[in-house]
Design a protein that fits this description.
Blueprint: E1 2-5, E2 13-14, E3 20-21, H1 23-35, E4 40-43, H2 49-54, E5 60-65, E6 74-76, E7 81-83, E8 85-90, H3 100-106, E9 110-113, H4 117-124, E10 132-135, H5 138-147, E11 152-156, H6 157-167, E12 172-176, E13 185-192, H7 196-209, H8 213-221, H9 226-233
Parallel strand pairs: 1-4, 1-5, 9-10, 9-11
Antiparallel strand pairs: 2-3, 5-13, 6-13, 7-13, 8-11, 8-12
Amino acid sequence: MRFAFIIEPPFNDRTAAGNVVGCDVELAAHVADVLGEAFEPIETQFAKMLPGLVDGRWDMTTGLFETPERSETASFTRPIWALPDGLLVPAKNLLGLSGYRSVAATGARLGVLRDQIQHDRALANGVSPECLVVGEDYEAMAALVARGDVDAYASVLRAHEGFLIRTGDQRLMASPVPVTEAPATTGAFAVRQGDSERLAATNAVLLEHIGSAAHRAAMGRWGFSATDVDLVAKEV
């Protein structure tokens, strides 16, 4: 199984030795193991993940939010996590940014990754297109916030928390986006549209594994609580 991922802890990351770790890549590796497939993680950029499925560069991607647009080019497994959005902001947060609407009200510069759902959510909550700074990878966008080149970076809250734990960067902090602006949303692995055999086989493994004691222990190592797991373990 060729598995496309981006560096975005706690979902996917690299150790100092270069090993790929994280809750998504470990879950995908479990699926491959159960299906008797060799596992090959392939690092890419977010905007290239779905095009790479279409042209056969890989077989499955890291977890994504399913949208009508993405479903036109990919098929999605059952949910693997449910997450709220968050902002990565300077530790002093002098602008008092606490969600998309506060960004809109202050005219702050908001970083988003190309083609991520936070781009559309920001616009839906009143952020001006002129205030959006579009980037290609997590660490580069976090660096822009640290330098003051953007005022905040929108992604999932868990990604920001994982980044801060891993780096210990005290210049930055994570600020939750209110659920009234962006409710917690489920994400799933994406496979090539029409690959019904892989989709069915993957779903069978996920149905058996998600919510099990082994899965809860694995997710717990990456900061997910039992309540977090329950949000997807109960999905059918």
